[in-house]
Sequence to fold (948 residues):
Amino acid sequence: MNGAKVELRGLRRNFSGTTALDGLDLTIEPGELIALLGPSGCGKTTALRCVAGFEQPDEGAVLIDGADITRVPANRRDAGMVFQSYSLFPNLSIRDNVAFGLRVRKVAAAKRHARAQELLELIGLPQIGERYPHQLSGGQQQRVALARALALEPRVLLLDEPLSALDAKVRVTLREEIRRLQLSLGITTIFVTHDQEEALSMADRVAVLRAGRLEQVADPATLYDRPTTAFVAEFVGTMNRIPGKLSGRTVTVLGQDLPVEGDVPATSDVEVLVRPETVIVTPDPSSEAMILVSSFRGSTSRLRVQLGDLEMLADVPGHDTVRLAPGTRVRVELVERPVLVSASSDVAAAVPVSEHDVV
Amino acid sequence: MTVQSPVHTAPAAAGGGSRPKKSKSWLATVPLLAFVVLVFGVPLVIILGGTFTREGTLSAANVTDSLQGAYLTALLGSVKLSALVAVVGALLGTFLAQAVVTSRFRLLREAVLTASGVLSNFGGIPLAFAWIATLGNSGVVTSALGLDSAGWSLYNFWGLTLVYLYFSIPLMVVVVVPALDGLRPQWREAAQNNGANTWQYWRHVGIPVLTPTLLGGVVLLFGGAFAAYATAAAMVGGTVPLVTLQIANALSGNVLIGHENVALALSLDMIVVAGLVMAVYLPLQRRSARWLR
Amino acid sequence: MAALTPAGPMAPVTPPAIAAGPGGRAGRPRRIRVWRGVVLLVAAVYFLVPLIASFTFTVKDASKGFTLDAYGQILSAEGFGKSLLLSLGLGVATIVVVLLLTLPAMLAVRLSVPKLKPVLEILCTLPLVVPPITFVAGITTILQWGPDHLADTPFFQTIIAAQNPDFPVVLVLAYVILALPFVYRALDAGLGALDARTLVEAARNLGASWPHLLFRVIVPNLRSALASASFLTLALVLGEFTIASLLHYQTFPVWIYTISGSQAQVSVAVSVFSLLITWLLLLVLSSAGARQRSGS
Fold:
């Protein structure tokens, strides 16, 4: 089994007034796992459903290995899909669920049972062929759904938030397992998720979508370190917004002059986007800044620091926690490296996903 | 002691019987259980006992009589009519329900569901008269379309079927709509994704998942048509052989002297048929509840 | 006999489970739309024509063309008021008896003797299996057999009293049995939604006595289920023909049947009229159910 190349060309799709896809272009290389990441309503699921054939784009084309399949009906496409939840057929045993596609293709019973067993072993559940979906846990059901999606040896695997209905622990083990399987089969995989951690930890490349358009596509490290837009920067990981003064391609922020990366807005009053781990915090009794809250996370601690009427987040090594207790006066500096800036008005461009673990 | 006495003790049992000592609260169920045993159980025992008694001696003659000649014809006629109504009603009801469920107009859906709830309770004498006024010998539609000269008659087997469907189809809609709503769109898409076309989806997934509900609906429809008496009595009198009409006939004294208990034997036949059909229904209902949760 | 069904009027208020997603079924082929239109059209004709025709039948007149006389004659027709009152009285009596029997029993089962629940459920469902006509066959036999064998015992007086044509208690007894399955289902659903155990424990904790608890805590919270059970019972009694006619009592449906021989138009008019009443009852019931649902 090897993967196919998937191309989305200028996909456009309207649902009675709302635009789900607004000219999406994306090429997925053979054997690659790409994550479509974005807030709800960004069109990521619609894009996936266009590849599966459950949606017809109003404009644009879907190509697999160069062949235009835009008008091919869903049941004749070479793509296996795993749905969000409860997609197993309740009236069929697990084995018959997995072998469903083979049955539809009139494969002999003995052969399709053997194939189903093979797949159940692949997903680590060889014992459950005789059981029925309602007898399985959510995680087991999704594994079976994965086996069913792989049964016809498709060259593209489509995953539509397959882990979102599971609890946290199962989610982590299952995503590792999906990745392991995907790598060993070499199947081209499109994975839709709104969970940035999931996207960053599993994918070869992550495509961030916003309002039906591609915002940025890159490997996880690049996406995190070198986001090309403020939206991506804030959607992926946590970001501080600190006021600064722009002059040319240099910005003055917290008394430091830093080079600017990416687009430069027209105004000189800008906000500088800074990751918590690039904020350096050192105790300094004479400074105005003060630590408000400190939450220990083992290897690091996340500090909430007040500086005038500004609050910012900083990640410091865990062993520094003792000398950086709440109430401590500190000096705040930024690591010397190119930074992203955005116009001051451009607030609420994105909601930092990890907001909830900020104390 | 009269059969009424449990009624009077009921509030007392609820108030006093289940006071702090919880062990006595079962007493509150005694009036209900006693009532059912007495008012429902005794007639059943009488039916059973009477069926096997002729002129004071134990005998199976009533059962034998009830299963031959005109009585057998009536019993078979009832089964035939009920089975036809059940199958046709279930099919048409399912089609109607599917048409409504897949519709994008919410108002249509609400209207059809409410109307079905009401019409499924429409039976008895008023139903018969409504149809007599419509398609009877001097009915409005009959005379408007000149059906009488074309040999039309409502007062036969097919006429009864037509009338019984009037409450059976809505009942089926009421039964099957929740099941149709329970068919998840993911199942259809997953089937398509595995290469199934529409027909294959229905054959392997849709229909099997609906089957318990559909059979359950057939059973309910059968039971309703099988037990119906008033509509048939008002419409056809004795011209269509039906077991309910035969029982009523026998109860009114239209039997051979000494054969009065044939009515009880016919009743027992009916209960056996209805019981067998219901016995199919309960396990089915349980299964569909599990699938469509 | 009103073909009261277990799922009956409750069903319309069931919230639709899954609405089709936005545009999820957009590109629907025209073929399916045509098919659906045909189905709905045929259904509309089949279900509306008898209603319209019945009404037309009652208002057409050979000489005058249109007249509402038939409806005027209902009130003056002999036996109308008496039979309607009898049916209403039977309905009310049946409701009282059936609720007094079932409510304490079901509460007790839910609160402290869950072991009895299957027994209760089966007993309350059994009447569905027994067609009313067979039930009446059994009753008739008892009523005929009783006087012959019990003439000298108090049972005799009881049996005679139960058959008083002005208020036949025997019908109430029979109707309680017929209503049991529906009342059981309605109350069971109501009690299930109520979480009676928590409510009772909370009230007991606050020092409420049992009678207080029953009438001040349970009954008000069960109002909708009780109303639903009562309406179903009333509709059943108002439409019941089989038992009443075979035991020779002049209840409302039996009266309609009796006058149909002499006054066909009036009998259809009464049918239309009684239909409207039943529908009104059921609509009130389903909207009451909907209100409660949205309230909770």
